[in-house]
Amino acid sequence: MKKFHIEKNTVQETLIIPLYGRKVCSEHFPHLFQDPEAEQICGMLDYDFARNGKKMETTAGLFGALEVAQRQYDLALEVKDYLKDHPKAAVVNLGCGLDDTFRKCDNGSCLGFNIDMPDVIAIRNELLPVGEREANIDCDLNDDSWMEKVDAKGGAVFFAAGVFYYFKTKDLKELLQKIARRFPGSVIVFDSCNSRGAKMMRKTWLKEAGITDVDALFSLEDPDELKTWSADFEEVTSKSYMRGYRDLYQEVSAAHKLLIRICDGYVKMRIVKIRVREKEQKG
User: Fold this and answer.
1) Domains of the chain, with CATH numbers?
2) Around 188, how many Cα atoms within 13 Å sit in the side-chain half-sphere?
């Protein structure tokens, strides 16, 4: 079988890091995570996993894998919860990369829309060709045209995994406002951290990517801040990234317990949910 070649130090490489993290997590924590799809996709790639594999085997590396896997678990639970009352809803993956959350949540009647930049979707089409009731949309999230392609007659749940950290706050505010206006009754779910977490990122991938205007990037001290962003936001709630949906604290090593406390207390890693108001009925 011909393998898909991944170039180092490219957008392609950044796409497979969370994918590989889920594979590693399944191997090291099989009682918590099972992701055979991640292992299958990694097997389709021509890439030197041994280099990143050594990093993943460290205490910090394994915790990073735990974070990636738990984030997908958390977001998938929110998607499934919305689908209980809206079984034919649109499940919209904002900045999808190689994430397959829609397929893990598919109830047989919902619709999946995976949105990312054209170069990312080109890779996704090779590795994760669309299935039934699923579409890959190549579009910048800040370009409103993708919204026209989302069939939300049955409702809509939007989610973003590790994406909004790349947004300037003003751009994210505008995006969420547009979603809320266009999709009443929808739910938007994403992960966030505070400014300390953003500064930690500055020392790693932001610096490598040449991004200098870090203070303009999105971070969140208190989810209640979002309530002022739009009158269309009916409710804003949040939960701990690593303990809010299922508590991993007793399932991990002492070192990882410490890292969980840092995530909760120091950098405020959260899963945030915005519930959008229903459209007012004219009577």
Assistant:
1) 85-276 (3.40.50.150)
2) 25
**Residue 241's closest CA among 218, 215, 214, 259?**
259
Counting Cα atoms < 13 Å in the Cβ hemisphere of 223 gives 19
Q: At a CB cut-off of 8 Å and minimum separation 6, what does 93 contact?
A: 99, 101, 102, 112, 113, 114, 115, 159, 160, 161
Q: How far apart are CA 60 and CA 255, in angstroms?
A: 9
For residue range 237-277, list pLDDT tens digits in order. Answer: 999 999 999 999 999 999 999 999 999 999 999 999 999 99
Q: How far apart are CA 88 and CA 109, in angstroms?
A: 5
Kindly report the backbone phi and psi dihedral angles of residue 49, in degrees, each rounded to the nearest multiple of 5, phi listed first: -70, -20
- 110 within 8 A of 90, measured Cβ to Cβ: yes
| Residue that is written with structure tokens 């959260």 in the block | 270
